[in-house]
Specification:
transferase; 4-stranded antiparallel β-sheet; 184 residues; zinc-finger; zinc ion binding; ubiquitin conjugating enzyme binding; Apoptosis, Tumor Necrosis Factor Receptor Associated Protein 2, Chain A
Amino acid sequence: QYATTGCSLTLHHTEKPKHEAICEYRPYSCPCPGTSCDWEGSLEAVMSHLMHAHKSITTLQGEDIIFLATDINLPGAVDWVMMQSCFSHHFMLVLKKQEKCEGHQQFFATVLLIGTRKQAENFQYRLELHGNCHRLTWEASPCSIHDGVSVAIRNSNCLVFDTATAHLFADNGNLGINVTISMC
């Protein structure tokens, strides 16, 4: 199905649907969590889409930045999104708050590469929360936006913490996460 966009595999008809679901050449969906955006397009068009359709997303330059999530006490499910640009690539930083069970809320923080799965293997990210005598650190390879935030959460490829931990590191309801991107 994606031969016109670069896929050169020839598969038996029974293997085709499974491959098409993960094919690197299928259109990219809008990676912005928490929105009902139906945009689809090429990898090259993702950043342009984000800059024009999701203007509230801030982009910071550099390998080391601070991702500030404001008002973490907002009720219900909330997503904070920011972009980080370094090593000639763009990374989407996401902090997601959602209710897991019976009022128990959890926070999920992850980094996605605006790129392919193969490109994502070339990078590592580190998320750090700092507080008085406390430090919480997570290091991993970013997921590709082809996989998305939900796959990162489902595969536990993210920093996970509860509301009590968030308050331990928060300052007046704002949570600063140090984000460092490095090349492998």
